[in-house]
Amino acid sequence: MSETLAYRDQTFINFRDFRFDSPTGHAFRWVDVKRFDLPRSDLGDDWLLTALIGHVAFRDDYAGGGVEAEGLRHGPYWLRHITPARYGQIDQEHANELLHGWTEQFGALPPALAARLEREVYPWVAAATSRYQLEDLGHEAFHDWGGVHTDFHELVLIDRTAGVLLLLVAADD
């Protein structure tokens, strides 16, 4: 591909940075959003998903090691198991249900955390012109220590109007 996604920036929201009623109410959860600029608005979603999977910023195990240029892992999975076909298209309602269900699974969020998610995550879900969710690839796709996350949710949000693609991972460690 002569055209590529251009990595723009990253937002990391660590639930531990907020005051919960119980000492472990944060449940070691976090949301990571990587933002990429689209090279053109007319590229198909399959092309964009392929470009994302091939991007160096995608090679992140989300377990503290960060991006590895020659990495073979993505989240809990071996990178070789992730293809555009493993992403299912979802609508805004389903994406919001997934995120709200995950964030609120242990009870109400601290108001400051809820406000930050409403400000920095949910508007992207609403604005997206296409939304995809990485399916559960199963234990057979786990890398050598891939079971470290209890929950791992990945959404790809494409906003052609703004010319951006977001890789949103909501997980725990």
Describe this structure in words.
- The protein is of the alpha+beta class.
- Helices cover 22% and strands 27% of the residues.
- The chain has helices at 45-54, 92-103, 111-120, 122-127, and strands at 6-14, 29-37, 73-74, 77-78, 87-89, 130-134, 152-159, 164-172.
- The protein has a six-stranded antiparallel β-sheet, sandwiched between helices. The chain has a two-stranded antiparallel sheet with strand order 3-4.
- A hairpin with a 2-residue loop joins strand 3 (73-74) and strand 4 (77-78).
- It starts with 5 loop residues before the first strand and ends with a strand.
- The model has no long low-confidence stretch (mean pLDDT 94).
Oligomeric category? single chain
| Tally of DSSP β-strands | 8
**Bulk shape:** globular
Largest sheet: 6 strands, antiparallel
- Encode the helix/strand succession as letters: EEHEEEHHHEEE
The SS-based structural class is alpha+beta
Q: Note the gap between the termini.
A: 34 Å
Spatial sequence of strands, sheet with the most strands: 1-2-8-7-6-5
Overall helicity: 10-25%
Q: Kindly estimate the percentage of residues that lie in beta strands according to DSSP.
A: 25-35%
Low-confidence sequence ranges: none
Tell me, rounded to a whole number, the average pLDDT: 94
Question: In angstroms, what is the radius of gyration?
Answer: 16 Å
Number of helices: 4
